[in-house]
Amino acid sequence: MSNLINGNNFNLTFDGRLVNLSDWTPEIAKAIAKGEGLELTDAHYDIINLMRDYYFTYNIAPIMKLLKREIARKFDPERATDEAINSLFPGGVQYQGSKIAGIPIPMLDSELEPAAQLRKTETKSASQHYNDSFNFNGKQIKVYHSGNLVNLDDWNEELAEHMAQQEGIELTNAHWVVLRYLRKFYFQYGITPMVKILMKHMGEELGTDVSDRDSLYRLFPGGPSRQGSRIAGLPTPQGCIDD
């Protein structure tokens, strides 16, 4: 579907989303919003720009819980309520808001197909992680090619120790701080954090001494998010994982 604004062509998908994210402008946002029956105000643009900033910082669209957290921090907790957000985007900020903001629809890890997660991690790793299945305490444990568990319920701390040893890591208290934080974040927000998000949130909650980039890579040389997620028994992170 081809459209024209101020002499510039832009293409939309069948459901009205930008084909090329780089085409986005505030004028195009207004046109998309008009098609949704919305007239954009400064309050709309506050949320739209926040979503865009988050996406282009972390290469992942903010899921609802993270978006509400950022709205409360940047603006006001009252603006982060469901009522306030839905009054701006009655079609849902995750679907309608992301469409107008010109970014992908936010997805929980559980909403991604295993094949899609697999495609994101088909890169060579220096670590010798399991990439099919392995026997542990008499049970066959299945993993994706990336080394992440197929069945998250298989995970326990003893299994984590075993998987870490397979990758040449002896887990210390410092490793466990990171692994437990990765698991806390996942079960709170529904996604495994990439390293930039991990550093941001760990720094805010636990202090910068434990979230320092160099320190994290000394603990997990295969990548705090990529390697850490495997050992923590979580899905592989979305976006630019360990950049």
Characterize the structure shown:
With 243 residues, this protein is mainly α. Helix content is 48%, strand content 7%. The chain has 2 domains: 2-101, no CATH class; 110-231, DsrC protein, C-terminal domain (Arc Repressor Mutant, subunit A), CATH 1.10.10.370.
Beta-strand percentage range: 5-15%
Distance between the termini: 35 Å
What count of helical segments does DSSP give?
Answer: 12
Strand-pairing-aware structural class: mainly alpha
CATH superfamily of the largest domain: DsrC protein, C-terminal domain
Q: Taking strands numbered 1, 2, ... along the chain, how are they ordered across the largest sheet? A: 1-2
The oligomeric status of these chains comes to: single chain
Stretches with pLDDT under 50, minimum 5 residues: 121-126
Rough outline: elongated
What's the main sheet like?
2 strands, antiparallel
What CATH first level of the largest domain would be assigned? Mainly Alpha
Task: Describe this protein with a few key phrases.
single chain, 243 residues, mainly alpha, Arc Repressor Mutant, subunit A, 2 domains, two-stranded antiparallel ribbon, two-stranded antiparallel sheet
In short:
The protein has 243 residues and is mainly alpha-helical. Helix content is 48%, strand content 7%.
Topology:
Blueprint: E1 2-5, E2 8-11, H1 26-35, H2 42-58, H3 64-74, H4 82-88, H5 93-101, H6 114-120, E3 133-136, E4 139-142, H7 157-166, H8 173-189, H9 195-206, H10 208-211, H11 213-219, H12 226-231
Antiparallel strand pairs: 1-2, 3-4
Helix pairs in contact: 1-5, 2-5
